Amino acid sequence: MRTQSVVTVVQVSAAMHKEIDRKQNTEVASLGEFPPEYLIKHPLQNTWTLWYYEPDRTKTWEESQREITSFDTAEDFWSLYNHIKTASELRQGCDYSMFKQGIRPMWEDDQNKCGGRWLINLDKKQRTTDLDNFWLEILLCMIGEAFNEYSDDVCGAVVNVRPKGDKLGVWTSNADCADSVMEIGRKLKERLRITSKTTMGYQVHKDTMVKAGSQTKNTYTL
Question: Which family does it belong to (predicted)?
Protein backbone atom coordinates (compact mmCIF):
# COMPACT_ATOMS: atom_id res chain seq x y z
CA MET A 1 0.00 0.00 0.00
CA ARG A 2 1.40 3.39 -0.94
CA THR A 3 2.07 5.96 1.76
CA GLN A 4 -0.44 8.46 0.41
CA SER A 5 -3.19 5.85 0.27
CA VAL A 6 -2.58 4.85 3.90
CA VAL A 7 -2.83 8.47 5.02
CA THR A 8 -6.03 8.91 3.02
CA VAL A 9 -7.55 5.75 4.49
CA VAL A 10 -6.84 6.98 8.03
CA GLN A 11 -8.50 10.32 7.29
CA VAL A 12 -11.51 8.80 5.54
CA SER A 13 -12.02 6.18 8.24
CA ALA A 14 -12.17 8.97 10.82
CA ALA A 15 -15.18 10.45 9.05
CA MET A 16 -16.79 7.02 8.76
CA HIS A 17 -16.24 6.32 12.44
CA LYS A 18 -17.84 9.62 13.44
CA GLU A 19 -20.90 8.82 11.32
CA ILE A 20 -21.24 5.36 12.86
CA ASP A 21 -20.90 6.82 16.36
CA ARG A 22 -23.53 9.45 15.52
CA LYS A 23 -26.05 6.86 14.38
CA GLN A 24 -25.37 4.56 17.30
CA ASN A 25 -25.81 7.44 19.74
CA THR A 26 -29.12 8.59 18.25
CA GLU A 27 -30.84 5.32 17.44
CA VAL A 28 -30.50 1.57 17.46
CA ALA A 29 -28.76 1.00 14.15
CA SER A 30 -28.66 -2.16 12.10
CA LEU A 31 -25.73 -3.10 9.90
CA GLY A 32 -27.90 -2.64 6.84
CA GLU A 33 -28.13 1.10 7.47
CA PHE A 34 -24.47 1.65 6.68
CA PRO A 35 -22.89 1.65 3.21
CA PRO A 36 -20.59 -1.38 2.67
CA GLU A 37 -17.45 0.79 2.76
CA TYR A 38 -18.33 1.84 6.33
CA LEU A 39 -18.10 -1.77 7.50
CA ILE A 40 -14.76 -2.66 5.91
CA LYS A 41 -11.68 -2.36 8.10
CA HIS A 42 -8.63 -0.80 6.47
CA PRO A 43 -5.32 -2.41 7.49
CA LEU A 44 -2.33 -0.32 8.50
CA GLN A 45 1.20 -1.13 7.41
CA ASN A 46 2.21 -1.77 11.02
CA THR A 47 0.62 -2.93 14.25
CA TRP A 48 0.82 -0.28 16.98
CA THR A 49 0.66 -0.59 20.77
CA LEU A 50 -0.61 2.00 23.25
CA TRP A 51 1.19 2.24 26.59
CA TYR A 52 0.18 4.19 29.69
CA TYR A 53 2.49 5.31 32.47
CA GLU A 54 1.31 6.42 35.89
CA PRO A 55 3.88 7.01 38.65
CA ASP A 56 3.66 4.57 41.55
CA ARG A 57 6.17 4.74 44.40
CA THR A 58 5.73 1.03 45.10
CA LYS A 59 6.85 0.09 41.57
CA THR A 60 9.86 0.69 39.37
CA TRP A 61 9.52 2.99 36.36
CA GLU A 62 9.43 -0.02 34.05
CA GLU A 63 6.79 -1.79 36.16
CA SER A 64 4.62 1.33 36.01
CA GLN A 65 4.50 1.16 32.21
CA ARG A 66 1.25 -0.57 31.27
CA GLU A 67 0.66 -2.08 27.85
CA ILE A 68 -2.96 -1.21 27.08
CA THR A 69 -3.80 -2.65 23.67
CA SER A 70 -2.62 -3.07 20.08
CA PHE A 71 -4.36 -2.31 16.79
CA ASP A 72 -3.64 -2.80 13.10
CA THR A 73 -6.53 -1.09 11.30
CA ALA A 74 -7.53 2.56 10.92
CA GLU A 75 -10.97 1.84 12.38
CA ASP A 76 -9.54 0.17 15.48
CA PHE A 77 -7.28 3.18 16.03
CA TRP A 78 -10.25 5.56 16.03
CA SER A 79 -12.26 3.23 18.24
CA LEU A 80 -9.41 3.31 20.75
CA TYR A 81 -8.70 7.03 20.48
CA ASN A 82 -12.36 7.99 20.92
CA HIS A 83 -12.75 5.93 24.09
CA ILE A 84 -9.72 7.00 26.13
CA LYS A 85 -8.85 10.26 27.85
CA THR A 86 -7.15 12.88 25.74
CA ALA A 87 -3.58 13.77 26.65
CA SER A 88 -4.71 17.03 28.28
CA GLU A 89 -7.02 15.07 30.59
CA LEU A 90 -4.23 12.90 32.02
CA ARG A 91 -3.09 13.46 35.57
CA GLN A 92 0.18 15.37 35.81
CA GLY A 93 3.12 12.99 35.85
CA CYS A 94 1.45 10.51 33.48
CA ASP A 95 2.42 9.54 29.93
CA TYR A 96 0.91 8.01 26.83
CA SER A 97 3.23 6.17 24.47
CA MET A 98 2.42 4.63 21.11
CA PHE A 99 5.04 2.37 19.54
CA LYS A 100 5.23 -0.23 16.85
CA GLN A 101 4.35 -3.62 18.25
CA GLY A 102 7.34 -5.29 19.88
CA ILE A 103 9.10 -2.02 20.77
CA ARG A 104 8.93 -0.93 24.39
CA PRO A 105 8.77 2.82 25.20
CA MET A 106 12.21 2.92 26.81
CA TRP A 107 15.71 3.89 25.71
CA GLU A 108 17.14 0.43 26.42
CA ASP A 109 14.95 -1.39 23.90
CA ASP A 110 17.02 -2.85 21.05
CA GLN A 111 15.09 -0.79 18.48
CA ASN A 112 15.58 2.45 20.44
CA LYS A 113 19.05 2.27 21.96
CA CYS A 114 20.88 3.63 18.89
CA GLY A 115 18.26 6.28 18.18
CA GLY A 116 16.90 9.49 19.60
CA ARG A 117 13.84 11.72 19.63
CA TRP A 118 12.53 14.93 18.15
CA LEU A 119 11.38 16.84 21.23
CA ILE A 120 8.67 19.48 21.36
CA ASN A 121 8.36 21.43 24.61
CA LEU A 122 5.05 23.12 25.36
CA ASP A 123 4.40 25.75 27.99
CA LYS A 124 1.57 25.30 30.47
CA LYS A 125 -0.86 27.45 28.49
CA GLN A 126 -0.50 25.20 25.44
CA ARG A 127 -2.07 22.24 27.25
CA THR A 128 -5.50 23.65 26.47
CA THR A 129 -4.68 25.00 23.01
CA ASP A 130 -2.16 22.69 21.32
CA LEU A 131 -1.39 19.51 23.25
CA ASP A 132 -4.27 17.31 22.07
CA ASN A 133 -4.07 18.50 18.46
CA PHE A 134 -0.30 17.95 18.32
CA TRP A 135 -0.54 14.48 19.88
CA LEU A 136 -3.29 13.35 17.52
CA GLU A 137 -1.46 14.70 14.48
CA ILE A 138 1.70 12.85 15.53
CA LEU A 139 -0.26 9.61 15.88
CA LEU A 140 -1.83 10.07 12.45
CA CYS A 141 1.58 10.76 10.91
CA MET A 142 2.93 7.53 12.36
CA ILE A 143 0.10 5.12 11.59
CA GLY A 144 -0.42 6.78 8.19
CA GLU A 145 3.27 6.30 7.28
CA ALA A 146 3.51 10.03 6.51
CA PHE A 147 7.30 10.11 6.71
CA ASN A 148 7.57 8.52 3.27
CA GLU A 149 10.63 6.30 2.76
CA TYR A 150 11.79 7.06 6.30
CA SER A 151 8.63 5.82 8.03
CA ASP A 152 10.36 2.52 8.84
CA ASP A 153 12.83 4.49 10.99
CA VAL A 154 10.07 5.77 13.28
CA CYS A 155 9.73 3.69 16.46
CA GLY A 156 6.96 5.54 18.25
CA ALA A 157 6.00 8.65 20.18
CA VAL A 158 5.55 9.74 23.79
CA VAL A 159 3.56 12.54 25.43
CA ASN A 160 4.61 13.57 28.95
CA VAL A 161 2.13 15.61 31.01
CA ARG A 162 4.11 17.61 33.55
CA PRO A 163 3.47 20.53 35.96
CA LYS A 164 6.10 22.83 34.42
CA GLY A 165 5.17 22.09 30.81
CA ASP A 166 4.27 19.12 28.65
CA LYS A 167 6.53 17.34 26.17
CA LEU A 168 5.98 15.47 22.93
CA GLY A 169 8.65 13.20 21.51
CA VAL A 170 8.89 11.25 18.26
CA TRP A 171 11.44 8.45 18.55
CA THR A 172 13.57 7.18 15.68
CA SER A 173 15.80 4.12 15.48
CA ASN A 174 19.11 5.50 14.18
CA ALA A 175 20.48 8.83 15.37
CA ASP A 176 23.44 8.58 12.98
CA CYS A 177 21.25 8.60 9.87
CA ALA A 178 21.07 12.37 9.42
CA ASP A 179 18.99 12.28 6.23
CA SER A 180 16.30 10.22 7.91
CA VAL A 181 16.30 12.19 11.15
CA MET A 182 16.08 15.55 9.38
CA GLU A 183 13.36 14.50 6.93
CA ILE A 184 11.24 13.10 9.77
CA GLY A 185 11.75 16.35 11.68
CA ARG A 186 10.83 18.52 8.69
CA LYS A 187 7.67 16.53 8.01
CA LEU A 188 6.74 16.68 11.69
CA LYS A 189 7.22 20.45 11.85
CA GLU A 190 5.19 20.87 8.66
CA ARG A 191 2.28 18.71 9.82
CA LEU A 192 2.13 20.37 13.24
CA ARG A 193 2.39 23.79 11.59
CA ILE A 194 5.19 24.81 13.92
CA THR A 195 6.48 28.20 12.80
CA SER A 196 10.07 28.94 11.86
CA LYS A 197 10.32 31.07 15.00
CA THR A 198 10.09 27.90 17.12
CA THR A 199 13.15 25.64 17.32
CA MET A 200 12.65 21.90 17.51
CA GLY A 201 15.56 19.78 18.77
CA TYR A 202 16.65 16.17 18.29
CA GLN A 203 18.25 14.46 21.28
CA VAL A 204 20.22 11.21 21.13
CA HIS A 205 19.06 8.67 23.73
CA LYS A 206 22.64 7.82 24.75
CA ASP A 207 23.25 11.50 25.57
CA THR A 208 20.01 11.70 27.55
CA MET A 209 20.92 8.62 29.61
CA VAL A 210 24.25 10.10 30.75
CA LYS A 211 23.25 13.77 31.03
CA ALA A 212 24.81 15.54 34.00
CA GLY A 213 22.18 18.26 34.30
CA SER A 214 18.58 18.77 33.40
CA GLN A 215 19.31 19.63 29.78
CA THR A 216 20.52 17.40 26.96
CA LYS A 217 22.32 18.99 24.03
CA ASN A 218 20.47 18.87 20.72
CA THR A 219 22.29 16.92 18.03
CA TYR A 220 20.05 18.33 15.28
CA THR A 221 17.78 21.36 15.23
CA LEU A 222 15.06 22.68 12.95
Answer: Belongs to the eukaryotic initiation factor 4E family.
